[in-house]
Design brief:
By secondary structure, this protein is mainly α. It contains 17 helices and no strands.
């Protein structure tokens, strides 16, 4: 098996190759902190936003369900911090597990561990520190929420290994990344219920869809390394698969809204979300890596739209 050509980790001043030029870490962060900020993906925060959105959705959905009429900004702030630090911890663990693969791929060879900026021991210590911050955030909620949050750690540990054994690692990612759809509801109500489960199911399907788009960037390297993904599984049939996942996501979100007693604003937001998902599928070129990345990143805006719609629902309930 031929290995991909490794990249030289000579990106200027240690910058990661796939980070946007001029990001805040490269410009403003103290030099000593930059390798760790890059390890946590603070220079590429899209994943943290995508982790945060289901937390906000489920919090607002639950507030509307129980008749609260003011969005809980304290919970939102806690989830914001939690999403960024736990995404950082997850990415650090992922980079520790994948360090040998990353060193052989041009896009990832400049990451802090394969480029030698951070040792494995330093990365482990950093991940533990981030987890402790995440635990401090989680302890601000009721004990049921603490238990629900801790239950996600098994998925976090398993995810980096999934692409070695199955063509469906995006399923594991979805189950892991959208756990916040359960945590937010638990934080408000102290329990779980069908609306939260439906919201979670829809968010998982959404994640499988958008991360399949993302995975098309790496499919050639994945093939050479013997790694698997839904992008490789679907191939030329990606568009109909995406259509199915996105229709399923919308259906689950409609069910969640109906069960929670959501109002017009929520369904108006879903209509905008549906239009955005149609755009993603209709304009997707799986051979255009830059286009795939742009469509992947656009899901943050989708998340903001649905968050705003749910917030309006709470305010006018």
């Amino acid at each position: 098996m031929t290995s991909p050509e490794p990249a030289s980790p000579s990106v200027a001043e240690g910058r990661v190759a796939d980070a946007a030029a001029g990001n805040w870490v490269d410009v403003y962060a103290p030099a000593v902190t930059r390798p760790y900020a890059r390890l946590a993906r603070f220079d590429r925060p899209i994943g943290a936003w995508l982790l945060l959105m289901p937390c906000c959705w489920s919090t607002l959905l639950a507030q509307n369900h129980v008749g609260q009429t003011v969005p809980n900004l304290w919970f939102m702030a806690l989830f914001f911090v939690g999403a960024f630090v736990m995404r950082g911890a997850g990415c650090t663990w992922n980079d520790i597990v994948d360090r040998d693969f990353d060193s052989r791929v041009r896009r990832t060879a400049s990451r802090p561990i394969p480029s030698g900026q951070v040792s494995v021991k330093q990365a482990l210590a950093f991940a533990v520190g981030l987890c402790l911050i995440g635990l401090a955030v989680l302890l601000q909620f009721n004990w049921f929420t603490v238990a629900v949050g801790i239950a996600s750690l098994g998925l976090v540990v398993v995810y980096p290994f999934s692409k070695r054994y199955t063509y469906w690692p995006q399923v594991v990612l979805g189950l892991t990344f959208k756990w916040g759809a359960l945590v937010g509801w638990a934080a408000v109500t102290g329990t779980l219920a069908w609306p939260a489960l439906a919201l979670y199911a829809g968010a998982v399907l959404w994640t499988i869809g958008y991360d399949t788009i993302y995975a098309h960037q790496d499919k050639e390297d994945d093939l050479l390394l013997g790694l698997k993904s839904t992008a490789l599984r679907f191939g030329a049939a990606t568009r109909p698969w995406l259509t199915g996942f996105y229709i399923g996501a919308l259906a689950m979100w409609i069910v969640a809204g109906a069960l929670a007693g959501s109002g017009v604003a929520f369904y108006a937001g879903l209509a905008l979300v549906a239009g955005h998902l149609v755009w993603q599928v209709a304009t997707l070129d799986t051979e255009d890596a830059a286009g795939c990345l742009a469509r992947f990143k656009s899901n943050r805006d989708l998340g903001f739209v649905l968050t705003a719609a749910l917030a309006v629902d709470v305010l006018v309930a």
